[in-house]
């Protein structure tokens, strides 16, 4: 059951918001995911009733029964997107309709009720409006929005829950890289896979992240920033990083990226990169890329650059690739020119500094 095409949000302003002086101090160097705004959105769902009790209220702890289904069987999904201060002083979100569509697909995969696109978008506009003073003013910062939903029914039986809670929280974030974009090193894990065919790889669910934490820890132990997963069947083809999709720039300037076959997350940044590259006259091949092709391509110069992309860091060059068989670098291990040009094009559209040929920028204020 989907329901809730439009919801009436009851607005209950926080009676004790953070003072302007405290907020300004928090916004100086917020980092990522540590500072939160004064409000949150909550919407309840019950089987037979649909979505109800939509509210914007003071951000506060939620009480959760120890038998809530999510604590046992992990029926949970989330999204992540950003609101930006635009060059003209207004506020906009980047492609929130795509997040709404993906949230609905994730819900379907996890046997959860779908929230309408209209209600999802409205929930984002409501929290941006009430917490607009929390959006960093500087060129690098943004307000990270985290919509999520979980099974709140108090029941230990194994079946899709009959009650859910949808929330949106907001977190001002600074530049992902202090001191400019730096290439990351990645660890090709021999021990773990992220998603198998038929699994939940294409759904944005907390469970995928829980299952990836050991692999990420292994990457850190091996001196790398991030883990790169190979496919679960042949252990040969590059899937993605723990939370970012991967692209390769070939010698002729065309791009190469693994296809969406159900085991990788369909990133909105990935889709945006494809559309921007094609508009610039680059061909984008979506096909399996083996780790051997990457290693040999880096050695021969056939693969000239590699980068990872996702909402949090936008586009990140990949410098060094390490595995138990040894390591190699892509070109000189630095930030490639095609990578950085695509990054700039995307960020300029997001910030309202460049024309928006695809209608991606969604004005809120
Ligand atoms: C969210 C996510 C991405 C990136 O998606 P964007 O829509 O570009 O932010 C990539 N991989 C995984 C596993 C993710 O969860």
Automatic annotation (TrEMBL):
Read off the lineage from the record.
Answer: Bacteria, Bacillati, Actinomycetota, Actinomycetes, Micromonosporales
The kind of enzyme this is, by top-level EC class, is transferase
| Single GO MF descriptor | branched-chain-amino-acid transaminase activity
Q: Name one Pfam family in it.
A: Aminotran_4
User: Does the keyword Transferase belong to this entry?
Assistant: yes
Gene Ontology biological process terms, A to Z:
amino acid biosynthetic process; branched-chain amino acid biosynthetic process
Modified residue annotations for N6-(pyridoxal phosphate)lysine: 204
Return the protein name. Branched-chain-amino-acid aminotransferase
Q: What's the catalysed reaction?
A: L-leucine + 2-oxoglutarate = 4-methyl-2-oxopentanoate + L-glutamate; L-valine + 2-oxoglutarate = 3-methyl-2-oxobutanoate + L-glutamate; L-isoleucine + 2-oxoglutarate = (S)-3-methyl-2-oxopentanoate + L-glutamate
* Known pathway: Amino-acid biosynthesis; L-isoleucine biosynthesis; L-isoleucine from 2-oxobutanoate: step 4/4; Amino-acid biosynthesis; L-valine biosynthesis; L-valine from pyruvate: step 4/4; Amino-acid biosynthesis; L-leucine biosynthesis; L-leucine from 3-methyl-2-oxobutanoate: step 4/4
């Amino acid at each position: 059951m989907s329901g809730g095409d439009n919801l009436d949000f009851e607005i209950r302003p926080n009676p004790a918001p953070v003072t302007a002086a405290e907020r300004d101090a928090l916004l100086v160097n917020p980092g990522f995911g540590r500072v939160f705004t004064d409000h949150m959105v909550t919407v309840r769902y019950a089987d037979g009733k649909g979505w109800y009790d939509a509210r914007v209220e003071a951000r506060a702890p939620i009480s959760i029964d120890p038998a809530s289904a999510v604590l046992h069987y992990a029926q949970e999904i989330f999204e992540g997107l950003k609101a930006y201060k635009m060059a003209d002083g207004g506020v906009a979100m980047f492609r929130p309709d795509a997040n709404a569509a993906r949230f609905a697909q994730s819900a379907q995969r996890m046997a959860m009720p779908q929230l309408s696109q209209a209600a999802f978008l409205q929930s984002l506009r409501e929290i941006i409006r009430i917490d607009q003073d929390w959006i960093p003013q500087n060129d690098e910062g943004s307000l990270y929005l985290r919509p999520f939903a979980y099974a709140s029914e108090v029941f230990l039986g194994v079946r899709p829950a009959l009650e859910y809670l949808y929330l949106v929280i907001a977190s001002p974030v600074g530049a992902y890289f202090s001191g400019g974009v730096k290439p990351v090193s990645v660890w090709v894990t021999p021990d773990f896979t992220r998603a198998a065919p038929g699994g939940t790889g294409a759904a944005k669910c907390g469970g995928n992240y829980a299952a990836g934490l050991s692999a990420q820890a292994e990457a850190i132990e091996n001196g790398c920033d991030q883990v790169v997963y190979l496919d679960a069947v042949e252990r040969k083809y590059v899937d993605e990083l723990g939370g970012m999709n991967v692209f390769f720039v070939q010698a002729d300037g065309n791009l190469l990226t693994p296809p969406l076959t159900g085991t990788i997350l369909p990133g909105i940044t990935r889709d945006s990169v494809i559309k921007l590259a094609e508009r610039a006259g680059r061909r984008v091949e979506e096909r399996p890329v083996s780790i051997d092709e990457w290693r040999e391509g880096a050695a021969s110069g056939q693969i000239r650059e590699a980068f990872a992309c996702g909402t949090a860091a936008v586009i990140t060059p990949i410098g060094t690739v390490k595995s138990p068989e040894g390591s190699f670098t892509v070109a000189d291990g630095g930030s490639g020119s095609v990578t950085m040009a695509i990054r700039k094009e995307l960020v300029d559209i997001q910030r309202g500094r460049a024309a928006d040929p695809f209608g991606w920028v969604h004005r809120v204020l």
